[in-house]
């Protein structure tokens, strides 16, 4: 018996994030469809209809959703609970997944509208849940029907929380079906945030993961879902999906969404060489997240350029080596300088990711970060105020030695303009002031403004730039003392 499943990506009115096609939901949907279930994806960033309308339409048509799955990062967990409440009101079984419920499953299960939480990767679990619902007369899990689903936490028929054993990380990524991109309104994502910054006309942007996981232990990263074990797909599988994206899905730009694309330098080169050999180089691509600066050489960047790569990003984080070492980044600033130089030499655009509010920082260290950003002069710079996400070493450090301003998870968004904590010499006023200064000193340089004015997409995207202009200047309130949460905790 086929089940009717709705997969939901919630959206917050107070938190903005890169509006990219969500691969996690796409993989879950593909697995469910392969198992014979009917799936709809509701990603709120690209929908016109309200979720209530979608749920009610299914009821009116006589095909209510049997199962509603919601993905949730920390800043959106309250929105995920609200989605579950709407689904539960209409009789559906509800399951949450993603980084935040994986770290804190009991928190979500304390909400009566949440029946289940999938901890870790969910492709196999979501299919097993749908099958267990088929064999059960109840819309809530029972110990008998759900006991064998690894990685599942749930409330049984007596209201008790049960945590099944963890599911081992999937090693055979090639056996996964290609993501169910046909269930998305692809053009809407491209118009919201084109990967190549508006240089494509009528873009169709897709993302691809060539590997999962990251073996490093940076203190600000939890790796709750994909783990610390790096698991690559075969080059043949990556190339097959790349061809499908370009030929069947009519992609005009592609973003590689790996945690770290170049953990193995030889494999990264092999992928680029295969794309060149298969003549899949016409569609431009970028690395969405920062790749490792210490796993690069000129040949890699040259191959990336020849294979169609337009821009490569690097997780620089800090311009102070002492602070960088404290993050357990295991990367030197000289590595970063070399990587930027070689990427530019190969003709690639560059992007740098920088963080403010890191443990061990002071004003001088933040000045080091700004100076390094100006020295590297990437085509794009993303300055972020650090968030101590639950499940990270940083979160535990702040609770132990610092002062967390808010326990409202909505306040933990990395793209917002407030400090989340104080620790050591890192004060809220200092973090916000230097964050604004970084944006101002980097983007308002006369030479950079002149170059930007000559780019063809600048004037079309002017409203977006004006919206982001608040990053450059402190408001009077901020200049006094900007911090999140009016009810800061000490």
Description:
- This protein has 490 residues and is of the alpha/beta class.
- The protein has two domains: 4-163, Rossmann fold; 194-481, pyruvate-formate lyase- activating enzyme.
- It is built from 19 helices and 17 strands.
- The chain has helices spanning 23-34, 51-60, 77-89, 99-103, 105-109, 123-134, 143-146, 186-192, 235-248, 265-277, 298-306, 321-326, 333-345, 363-376, 393-401, 428-443, 446-453, 462-467, 476-481, and strands at residues 4-9, 38-43, 67-71, 93-97, 116-118, 152-155, 161-163, 205-208, 211-212, 231-232, 253-256, 285-287, 309-317, 349-356, 380-385, 403-404, 421-422.
- The protein has a seven-stranded mixed sheet, with helices on both faces. A six-stranded parallel sheet has the order 8-11-12-13-14-15.
- Helix 1 packs across helix 6 (123-134), helix 9 (235-248) packs across helix 10 and helix 14 packs parallel to helix 16.
- 44% of the residues are buried.
- The model is unreliable at 476-490 (pLDDT under 50).
Descriptive key words:
490 residues; alpha/beta; Rossmann fold; pyruvate-formate lyase- activating enzyme; 7-stranded mixed β-sheet; 6-stranded parallel β-sheet; globular
What secondary-structure arrangement, pairings included, does this model have?
Blueprint (H helix, E strand, L loop, with lengths): L3 E6 L13 H12 L3 E6 L7 H10 L6 E5 L5 H13 L3 E5 L1 H5 L1 H5 L6 E3 L4 H12 L8 H4 L5 E4 L5 E3 L22 H7 L12 E4 L2 E2 L18 E2 L2 H14 L4 E4 L8 H13 L7 E3 L10 H9 L2 E9 L3 H6 L6 H13 L3 E8 L6 H14 L3 E6 L7 H9 L1 E2 L16 E2 L5 H16 L2 H8 L8 H6 L8 H6 L9
Parallel strand pairs: 1-2, 1-3, 3-4, 4-5, 8-11, 11-12, 12-13, 13-14, 14-15
Antiparallel strand pairs: 5-6, 6-7, 9-10, 16-17
Helix pairs in contact: 1-6, 9-10, 10-11, 14-16
């Amino acid at each position: 018996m086929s089940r009717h499943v709705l997969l939901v990506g919630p959206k917050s009115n107070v938190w903005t994030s890169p509006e990219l096609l969500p691969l996690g939901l796409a993989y879950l949907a593909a697995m469910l469809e392969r198992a014979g279930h009917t799936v709809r994806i509701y990603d709120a960033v690209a929908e016109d209809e309200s979720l209530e309308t979608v749920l009610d339409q299914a009821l009116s048509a006589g095909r209510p959703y049997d199962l509603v799955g919601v993905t949730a990062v920390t800043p959106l967990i309250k929105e995920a609970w609200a989605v579950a409440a709407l689904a539960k009101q209409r009789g559906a079984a509800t399951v949450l997944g993603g980084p935040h419920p994986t770290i804190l499953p009991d928190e979500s299960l304390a909400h009566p509208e949440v029946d289940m939480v999938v901890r870790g990767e969910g492709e196999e679990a979501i299919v097993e849940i749908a099958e267990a619902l088929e064999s059960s007369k109840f819309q809530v899990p029972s110990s008998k029907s759900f006991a064998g689903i690894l990685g599942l936490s749930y409330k049984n028929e007596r209201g008790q929380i049960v945590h099944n054993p963890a599911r081992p990380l999937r090693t055979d990524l090639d056996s996964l079906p290609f993501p169910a991109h046909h269930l998305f309104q692809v053009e809407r994502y491209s118009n919201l945030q084109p990967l190549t910054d508006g240089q494509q006309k009528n873009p169709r942007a897709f993302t691809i993961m060539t590997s999962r996981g990251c073996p490093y232990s940076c203190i600000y990263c939890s790796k709750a879902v994909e783990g610390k074990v790096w698991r690559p797909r075969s080059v043949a599988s990556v190339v097959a999906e790349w061809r499908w994206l370009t030929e069947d899905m009519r992609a005009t730009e592609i973003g590689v969404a790996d945690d770290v694309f170049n953990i193995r330098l030889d494999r990264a080169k092999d992928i680029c060489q295969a794309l060149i050999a298969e003549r899949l180089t016409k569609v431009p691509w970028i690395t969405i997240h920062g790749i490792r600066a210490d796993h690069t050489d000129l040949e890699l960047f040259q191959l990336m350029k020849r294979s169609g790569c337009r821009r490569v990003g690097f997780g620089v984080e800090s311009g102070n080596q002492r602070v960088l070492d404290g993050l357990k980044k295991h990367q030197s600033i000289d590595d970063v300088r070399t990587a930027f130089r070689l990427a530019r030499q190969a003709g690639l655009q560059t992007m740098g990711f920088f963080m403010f509010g890191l443990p061990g920082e002071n004003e001088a260290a933040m000045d080091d970060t700004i100076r390094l950003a100006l020295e590297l002069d990437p085509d794009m710079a993303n300055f972020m105020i650090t968030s101590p996400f639950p499940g990270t070493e940083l979160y535990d450090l702040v609770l132990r030695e610092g002062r967390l301003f808010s326990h409202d998870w909505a306040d933990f968004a990395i793209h917002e303009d407030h400090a989340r904590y104080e620790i050591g010499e890192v004060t809220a006023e200092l973090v916000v002031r230097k964050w604004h200064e970084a944006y101002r000193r980097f983007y308002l340089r006369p030479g950079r403004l002149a170059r930007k004015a000559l780019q063809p997409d600048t004037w079309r995207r002017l409203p977006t730039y004006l919206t982001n202009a608040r990053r450059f200047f402190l408001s009077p309130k901020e200049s006094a003392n900007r911090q999140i949460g009016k009810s800061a905790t000490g």
